[in-house]
Structures are given as C-alpha cells and as structure tokens.
Design a protein that fits this description.
Blueprint (H helix, E strand, L loop, with lengths): L1 H10 L3 H38 L2 H15 L1 H8 L3 E6 L4 H12 L7 E4 L19 E9 L3 E2 L4 H9 L8 E8 L8 H12 L3 E2 L4 E4 L4 H20 L13 E5 L32 E10 L8 E7 L12 E4 L5 H10 L7 E6 L14 E2 H8 L8 H8 L5 H11 L3 H13 L4 H7 L7 H7 L6 E4 L10 E7 L2 E3 L5 E3 L1 H7 L11 E7 L13 E4 L6 H15 L7 E7 L9 H9 L5 E6 L9 H7 L1 H9 L4 E7 H19 L4 H13 L3 E6 L1
Parallel strand pairs: 1-2, 1-3, 3-5, 5-6, 5-7, 19-20, 19-22, 20-21, 22-23
Antiparallel strand pairs: 3-4, 8-12, 9-10, 9-18, 10-15, 11-14, 11-18, 12-13, 16-17
Helix pairs in contact: 9-14, 11-12, 12-13, 19-21, 21-22
Enzyme class: oxidoreductase
Pfam family, one: FAD_binding_1
Keywords: Endoplasmic reticulum, FAD, Flavoprotein, FMN, Membrane, NADP, Oxidoreductase, Transmembrane, Transmembrane helix
Length: 679
C-alpha cells in the first residue's frame, strides 16, 4: 500500500512542485558550471606556478656555489695574488699557512690562507689570470700516509684530474713524522702530482718532521722560500717583519647571555640542544658511566672509561677512533689571568679585520676570556716562534725583549736557544710569562696568537656488536717533570681522570665524536689474526676479541686469534688481565703471549716473543693468510716489530732482506699488515 501511495504521489505532481523542480535544476547547473570554471582556473594557475616558480631558485642554486667556492674570484675581488692552502688535522698546517699568507705583505704581495674543503680546486688552472700569482700548499699527512679530513676531496680530485695546470706556479711544505712508515706521503704526492699536471714548482718541497723539530724545519724552509719567490717575480722585501693584528677586539658590556658561547665547538647552544649527526663541529655530550683504574700498582695511572652513546645515533666499528674535546686545567687559566691582571669573565669578540675572510673569528665568539682559555686555546704546548716574535713588543725589559726576538729569528744561535729554552724545557705560555716578569701582553692579542685546543684521539676499546650504546677508552695519564722543575700534565688524560660517573651531572660529560679508521678485522671471521699491542696499544684488540667472541656465539667459524701484549710488571700494569684470561678460557683467544719488560734483569719486549714463536708466525702468515695488526708506540715498538717480521719472512721464506721488506710492504698494500700507532 505504501508503495502505491508513493507511486500515486509521483504521478500526481502539482504545478507548484514543477516550478520548484525547474528552479532546483537551474541552481544545480549554475553550481556545476561554477565548479568546473573554478577547478579549471585553479588548475591553470597552479600549473603555471609549477612551471615558472622553480626557475628562479634553480638559477640561484647553480650560481651560488660557483660564487662561493671560487677562490679565484675572491682573490681578484680582494687584490690577493698568493693563496696558501692547508691540509690540517691538528691545526699546525693551518697555522703555518696563516704565517705564510701574513708574510706576503713584506714583499708587496697579498696572501690568503684557504681551506681546500671550502673551494673548488679545479680553479687552480685559472690562477694564472692573476698577476704574480702563486699557490702554496701546507699539507699534513695523517695516519698511515692518508690526507687530512679537510684535504680528502682535494686528494681525490688530484688523483682523477686531467687538468692542464701549465700556468700554475706552486710550492709545497709537508708536515709529517719520521717515525711513521709513510713519512710526509701527502706533501710528496701533492708536489709530484702538480708537476705531472704541468704546474711549475718555484721552490723545492719542504719536509717537516714532527719527531724532530717541526718548527725549525718550517722556519728553515720559509727563510729560503721567500728569496726564491722574490727572484721569480722580481720583487724585493719592503721592510722588516712587523706585527700586524688579524683580529680586532670588541668588548661586550650589554649582551644577551643566551648569545654567548660557553665551550660549544660550532652551533650556539648545541650542548643544551643536541641534534645528530655528531662530528668535529657538532660533538655529542656523552655521559661517563664507568671510570676505573686498571693497574694495581706503580706510579702511573692507567684507566678504563665507558661513554654512554645511547640515543645519539652514533655508529662505530671495532678499530675506529673516538675523538674527545678536553678542557684546560682551571688553575692554569686562573694563573694566566692573574699575571695579566685581567677579568677573565669579560665578554668579548675577536673579529677578523679582513671582512672577506671565511674565518670571522679565531674561535667561537662572543665568549669570555675564561671560556676561550679553557675550551678553545692551547695553553699547555710550547708556543711557536711566531708567537714569541709577536709577544716581544710587550716585554718592558730590553734583555727579555731581545731574548724573545732572538728565539724567533732564523739565526742558528736563535734556533738553538728556542730549542733548549722552549722546546726541550717544555715551557708553555704560562711558564714563559712566569719566567719573563716584564712580559705583559694584552690578553686579547695573546688569545689571537695561541693555537686552537685540539681534540684527542683514542683507539676504541670495545666492539659495537657487544656494546652498541657505549664506547670504551683505555688511556694512561700523562704527567712529567720538566727541566725547570715544573710538573706538566697531559690536558686530556688528566681531565678524563677526573670524570667521575654520576658526579653532579655535567662534570661527567665528555664532548666526543667518532672518526672512522682503516684498522679493521678481516671480512671473513675464519681468517687468523695476529695482534701486537703493548701498553695501552691493547685498546683496539679488546674490541677485536670481543667481536670474535660475539661471532663465535653466533655460530660463525672463527679463525685463530693471537695476541702479543706487553707491560712493565706482571703485578702492576697487566691491563685487562681478567678479561683476557676469560677469553682464553672460552677458546676465543687461542694464543696469549705477554712480555713483562722489567720483571727480570734483561728487558723482554713483544718483538722478542715474536722471534721465539717465529715458526708459528710464518705458518699463520704464509699458509693461513693471517692479518697482522700493530698498535702503540711508533718511534720504537712498531719499528722493532716490523724489523722482526722482515727477519722472520727472510728466514722462513728463503728471501733476501730486500725481498722480505718487499713482501711485508705488499702485505700492507693488501691490508694484511695494519698499523694504528702514535709517537
């Protein structure tokens, strides 16, 4: 019935209903037409926007890097004709580059120091566009013949480049250390490669040796370099070396305390608001969760620290290095402030007088003198000769002024005096101020002259497979008496020693980041490994053994794991004794050979144990394709161990000495003989 009723209603529509329906249709039509027009209009403009708007940003993004990364354009704009590039890991090469660029004004030339990471080095082919132009390279070698981090791109470019550098004039000073296998590899390579690409060398390659006297090597090279430049360009020195300030002091009396740096390495407030990724310019603040003394006796303090890296997204591999930013001893900072009669809590900025320079400040500014001397400046190493030269003008006593000038000179007598009075006596800036009572430099000039306090690197003593949220450090505190009777303390190790877990929060925090290493376990766990690491050189091998134990637990076939360790006394400084015994018991550590150097009349070192087991060593290397790892002192131990391997290879491989040397060198090339050493 209801259906019929509905049908009847449809059939019997009144005229009023018809009019209403017509009205509804026309309104719907209008709405639909309006919607279509609106959608079309929106689509048209949206499409137009999409086509046109990206054009401007695209033009800008292409243009900006060219403008920013062209050192040629910058040199033209600022009237420079000498560019000094530096490959620097610890700041010394950068310091030398700054000194050379500053020297240029004495010869009517203008120089600029440049970080190769910030520029396109392909522009070297255009340097001849500038009159009397010259490129100088201060190149440090890092690790086992590697470029420094900031010179890696330049090194890669040099290897691949087929550029024509025939118009380029250049000179190279290398910074290296003779105790390392690949002495000055980077300096030698840059010098050779630039010549291969057609560049003209205007002065011989300088080879600085940090195991000797790097400062003297640099001065000797520099005093012959500039006459060669003068002869080449037909210019003369315009006058004596003079003190020219690079930065101007601005004291802040009314400044927002939230805008002041308090020790951060890069971004302001980065320690309060931590954001990954963490690196040299943005370190992670890791909590110290363990700090225990490892040795049972003796005068030294050997320690094991554990840093918590939870929630940092930091990843590491066994064999990597952890870099730690330390702080200077507050008592040294206070003494400098007292001698100079300065309020260390003054807020200031040092602003570069060269407005075009990429380096606006020598360290993060604005900050206080206290913060600068605590976190940013190196106040414990003997200052270099250029610092003494600049300070001389502030000595009121004529004798002290003359002494400072003499030590900064290139005369043989001056070099000898600098070597004995500063280097060998290990006089830092505080000791110099104490021993020269009339010397009162303005603190801002002193802050400008002192080099930056550098991060310290430690071989990581843990495996991320076992400790994904922690990084372990094994270190010995450095402390020694100088010839002047002063007690000098290592900055980082003494600072770390005082990092007590859960000690009022902040005091147990360590700014750190991870630096990748080539010191790696073999890809196949079944490959045998021979690890040689006396003293704290055992650090990476604790990580290696932890990882091999973990692999074994995963059911992997793990090859022979052999350790040669050495210390002074079995009952005093046998590090990780309990852990090593446990690993041996579990069958992970298949051989544990320990040399106690001072427990008997004749000293016994790791190389003596290698000789005792020479047949087994040769079998592992020759038949088992074992990988060899050496960690520790470069000056004596690493060299003695390498010579021992030459002897073993010569004897059991029936080779001559040169053939044995070549055999070991080939192991190194193949990554089967790896070094993680320091001097």
């Amino acid at each position: 019935l209801s259906v019929m009723g509905d049908a009847g209603m449809e059939r019997n529509v009144s005229p009023a209903d018809n009019a209403a329906q017509d009205s509804l249709v026309s309104m719907t039509d209008v709405f639909l037409v309006s919607l279509i027009v609106g959608l079309f209009t929106y689509w048209f403009f949206f499409r137009k926007k999409k086509e046109e708007v990206p054009d401007l940003p695209r033009m800008q993004t292409v243009a900006a890097p060219v403008r920013d990364s062209s050192f040629i354009e910058k040199m033209k704009k600022t009237g420079r004709n000498i560019v000094v590039f530096y490959g620097s890991q610890t700041g010394t090469a950068e310091e030398f580059a700054n000194r050379l660029s500053k020297d240029a004004h004495r010869y009517g030339l203008r120089g600029m120091a440049a970080d190769p990471e910030e520029y396109d080095l392909a522009d070297l082919s255009r340097l001849s566009e500038i009159d009397k132009s010259l490129a100088v390279f201060c190149m440090a070698t890092y690790g086992e013949g590697d470029p420094t981090d900031n010179a890696q791109d330049f090194y890669d470019w040099l290897q691949e480049a087929d550029a024509d550098l025939s118009g380029l004039r250049f000179a190279v000073f290398g910074l290296g250390n003779k105790t390392y296998e690949h002495f000055n590899a980077m300096g030698k390579y840059v010098d050779k490669r630039l010549e291969e690409l057609g560049a003209q060398r205007i002065f011989e390659l300088g080879l600085g040796d940090d195991d000797g006297n790097l400062e003297e090597d640099f001065i000797t090279w520099r005093e012959q370099f500039w006459p060669a430049v003068c002869e080449h360009f037909g210019v003369e020195a315009t006058g004596e070396e003079s003190s020219i300030r690079q930065y101007e002091l601005v004291v802040h009396t009314d400044v927002n305390m939230n805008k002041i740096y308090t020790g951060e390495m890069g971004r302001l407030k980065s320690y309060e608001n931590q954001k990954p990724p963490f690196d040299a310019k943005n370190p992670f603040l890791a909590q110290v969760t363990e700090n225990r003394k490892l040795n049972e006796g003796g005068e030294r303090h050997l320690m094991h620290l554990e840093l918590d890296i939870s929630n940092s997204k930091i990843r590491y591999e066994s064999g990597d290095h952890v870099a730690v930013y330390p702080a200077n001893d507050s008592s040294l900072v206070n003494q400098i402030g007292e001698i100079l009669g300065t309020d260390l809590d003054t807020i200031m900025s040092l602003n570069n007088l060269d407005e075009e320079s990429n380096k606006k400040h020598p360290f993060p500014c604005p900050t206080s003198y206290r913060t600068a001397l605590t976190y940013y400046l190196d106040i414990t190493n003997p200052p270099r000769t250029n610092v003494l030269y600049e300070l001389a003008q502030y000595a009121m006593d004529a004798g002290e002024q003359e002494r400072l000038r003499k030590m900064a000179s290139s005369a043989a007598e001056g070099k000898a005096l600098y070597l004995s009075w500063v280097v060998e006596a290990r006089r830092n800036i505080l000791a110099i101020l104490q021993d020269m009572p009339s010397l009162h430099p303005p603190i801002d000039h002193l802050c400008e002259l002192l080099p930056r306090l550098q991060a310290r690197y430690y071989s990581i003593a843990s495996s991320s497979k076992v400790h994904p949220n922690a990084i372990h450090i094994c270190a010995v505190t450095v402390e020694y008496e100088t010839k002047t009777g002063r007690l000098n303390k290592g900055v980082a190790t003494n600072w770390l020693k005082n990092k007590v877990p859960n000690d009022n929060g902040n005091s147990s925090l360590v700014p750190m980041y991870v630096r990748k290493s080539q010191f790696r376990l073999p890809f196949k766990p079944s490959t045998p490994v021979i690890m040689i690491g006396p003293g704290t050189g055992i650090a990476p091998f604790i990580g290696f053994i932890q990882e091999r134990a973990w692999l074994k637990q995963q059911g992997k076939e793990v090859g022979e794991t052999v350790l040669y360790y050495g210390c002074r006394h079995e009952r005093e400084d046998y590090l990780y004794r309990g852990e090593l015994a446990r690993f041996q018991q579990e069958g992970v550590l298949t051989q544990l050979n320990v040399a106690f150097s001072r427990d008997q009349a004749e000293k016994v070192y790791v190389q003596h144990l290698l000789k005792r087991n020479k047949e087994n060593i040769w079998k592992l290397v020759n038949e088992g394709n074992a990988h060899i790892y050496v960690c520790g002192d470069a000056r004596n131990m690493a060299r003695d161990v390498q010579n021992t391997f030459y002897e073993i290879v010569a004897e059991f491989g029936n080779m001559s000495q040169p053939q044995a040397v070549d055999y070991v060198k080939k192991l190194m090339t193949k990554g089967r003989y790896s070094l993680d050493v320091w001097s």
